[in-house]
Structures are given as structure tokens and as C-alpha cells.
Amino acid sequence: MRKADLPEILTIERLSFPSPWTEGMFLDELRVPQAQNWVVKIEFGGKALIGAYIIFWLVADEAHLHNLAVRKEFRRQGLANHLLQLMKQTAAQMGITKRTLEVRASNRQAIALYRKCGFVVKGRRPKYYTDTKEDALIMWADG
Ligand SMILES: CC(C)(COP(=O)(O)OP(=O)(O)OC[C@H]1O[C@@H](n2cnc3c(N)ncnc32)[C@H](O)[C@@H]1OP(=O)(O)O)[C@@H](O)C(=O)NCCC(=O)NCCS
Prior knowledge:
Blueprint: H1 6-16, H2 23-31, E1 35-44, E2 47-59, E3 62-70, H3 79-93, E4 98-104, H4 108-116, E5 120-129, E6 134-142
Bound molecules: coenzyme A (COA).
């Protein structure tokens, strides 16, 4: 992910989340050394479009997922699964096997994805999302 990718990423972000990240939040992630920021580019109609992106942190012995979204036209084609495998492999190269994330309790698609990728619910943060007062599920995978 580069700064030049942000206009396209912000469009995907706004169509994907009720409280989308701002440009400043993405710029902060691009500056932080422990952040891993990746995009998937897809050749489409003669252009390279951003199909998906992921941001995760490698901190101590844990990998923390911060953001993951797939452009609507490219969903259900395995891109998110691919990026979560990338997170697993990148972490493993640093000897990290534990991975964690927070997800809105109502986000059935994402929860199904994370379960398929080996994450299990280990906790709940009540009213974690201030926009809707919705709970966050805390999910973990190991190995
Ligand atoms: C959730 C999201 C990232 C999934 O991306 P994707 O590339 O479509 O997911 P994949 O194609 O890799 O799907 C892998 C598995 O996840 C599950 N899954 C994904 N989308 C699903 C849906 N709409 N309904 C049910 N299960 C779904 C399925 O088990 C799927 O495997 P299958 O297609 O073999 O059944 C995408 O829908 C998205 O960007 N949503 C908005 C942003 C978001 O919620 N991000 C997560 C924040 S925590």
C-alpha cells in the first residue's frame, strides 16, 4: 500500500464500513514500522484496480488485524481469505503464530470468513463501537 493508493482505498472503505477510516488514519498506518499494509491489484478493463487491502500489526508475539476490505465487485472470490493467509505467513516468518482481531457482532460475512480461516471467538467487548453501541467479538487464531 502506498500513499498514491489512498483515493481508491478510501472509496472502497466508505462503501464497506458504517464508520470508515479517514485518510489521516491510513497515513498514520503507513508511517508506523510495525504495521504491514498490503493491497491486491487486479487487471480489469486494461487498468490495475485495487481489489482488496489489509492492515495488520506485528507486535511482540501477536499479529493484530486492523483493517480488511474487498471491493464489492470482487467479493466472494477468495481475496480476503488470501490476505488472511498472507497475514498468517508474514507473522510466521517472524515466529509469530497468535493472531487476533475485533469484529462487529452483526458482521456475519466477516465472522464466517474468520471462522473459515481458523479464528474462534474468545471474548466480547460490550458497546465497543461508539457509532451503533454495538458489541465487538474478539477472535483469536493460533498456529
Ligand atoms: C468480509 C469480506 C472482507 C469478505 O471478503 P471476500 O473476499 O468476499 O471473502 P472470501 O471470498 O475470501 O470468502 C472466504 C469465506 O468467507 C465466508 N464469506 C465471505 N463472504 C460471505 C458472505 N457474504 N456470506 C457468508 N459467508 C461469507 C465464506 O465462508 C467464504 O468461503 P466460500 O466463498 O468458500 O463460502 C468482504 O465482504 C468485505 O470487504 N466486507 C466489508 C468490510 C468488512 O466487513 N471487513 C471486515 C471487518 S472486521
